[in-house]
Design goal:
Length: 262
């Protein structure tokens, strides 16, 4: 690729992508509403408020692919979610269609399916069950991506990321953890695949406890290499294990599923 756009490039995963995706494209175009510092030789810095269509249009122009991380990344009020995640994602896709961008990695979330019970193993054919307004906004993004593929041929990998951090932080993340290396290898697969179409991928490492079945994305050939298991002793020592019947232990989405805005 000549130019890969990374939205949300000042955030946790965007900064990781900035450091690690240098082989994917000649130029990384980095965008956020937060400060991105100085551009390196292979970088372009483009501040952009994604809820503004004209800004999104200028941002996307000339890009071959997009890694879309930008937006609100946890539960919030509708007033915050609406511009950043709903309008922002629409603006990005419509701008991508207009500029002929071929392929998008859309950072969806496990919170799009967070209301499944933990004893239920699901795959990409199971219906969405969002656990929060944040999760609802990711379902919107998934539907939008489907529409832009079916109608206009803009390819998307919808990646329902579990918990991507340097290390798992609690017992739930022993199941949902996605290592940074596994995320990087997944992004590589998404942009290297000869044909992508529209595909849903669950972004979790090769953890011992598995809630999500990636059979529908098998054609990508992505095999996560890491596991949360080496962190188990650290998590057991550091975090109190919730009672197995505790509400926070009931759903894939954990605390997101039981937290209420009222
Ligand atoms: P983050 O909150 O660290 O980064 C998000 C970035 O988006 C921030 O730098 C923020 O300034 C930017 N942003 C927010 N509103 C914006 C707007 N209106 N216009 C332009 N930029 C805006 O989140 P993180 O952890 O890096 O996650 C990246 C993406 O991956 C998010 O979309 C998140 O929902 C998704 N995700 C992340 C997971 C994780 O474990 N880190 C798990 C599941 C999904
Ligand atoms: C997400 O969607 C969030 O962006 C991230 O901050 C974590 O909360 C993650 O889900 C999770 O479920 O652990």
């Amino acid at each position: 690729m000549k130019r890969l756009l990374i939205t949300g490039a000042a955030g946790g995963l965007g900064s990781l992508a900035r450091r690690r995706l240098t082989d994917l494209a000649e130029t990384l175009r980095l965008s956020d509403i937060a400060d991105l510092g100085e551009a390196a030789a292979h970088e372009e810095i483009r501040p952009c408020e994604l809820s503004d269509f004209a800004q999104a249009q200028a941002l996307v122009e000339g890009c071959d692919g997009i890694v879309h991380f930008g937006g609100i990344s946890v539960e919030n009020t509708w007033e915050k979610i609406l511009p950043a995640n709903i309008e922002g994602t629409y603006n990005l896709y419509e701008a991508a269609r207009q500029s002929g961008v071929k392929r998008i990695f859309f950072a969806s979330s496990n919170h799009a399916i967070g209301f499944y019970k933990r004893e239920t193993r699901i795959d990409a054919t199971d219906p969405v069950r969002p656990d929060s307004l944040y999760g609802v906004s990711k379902c919107f993004g998934e539907a939008l991506a489907r529409y832009y593929y079916d109608k206009y041929g803009v390819e998307t990998a919808v990646v329902r990321i579990g918990s991507c951090f340097p290390e798992p932080k609690d017992h739930r993340m022993m199941a949902t953890w996605l290592s940074e290396d596994d995320l990087v290898s997944l992004i590589g697969r998404v942009f290297d695949a000869p044909k992508l179409g529209y595909v849903t991928v669950f972004g979790a490492s090769d953890n011992e406890e598995q809630w999500w079945d990636n059979r529908c994305a098998g054609f990508l050939g992505w095999r996560p290499k890491d596991s949360s298991e080496p962190f188990r002793a650290m998590i057991d020592a550091k975090c109190e294990k919730p009672e197995s019947e505790a509400p926070v232990n009931r759903y894939h989405g954990g605390a997101f599923a039981i937290a209420r805005l009222d």
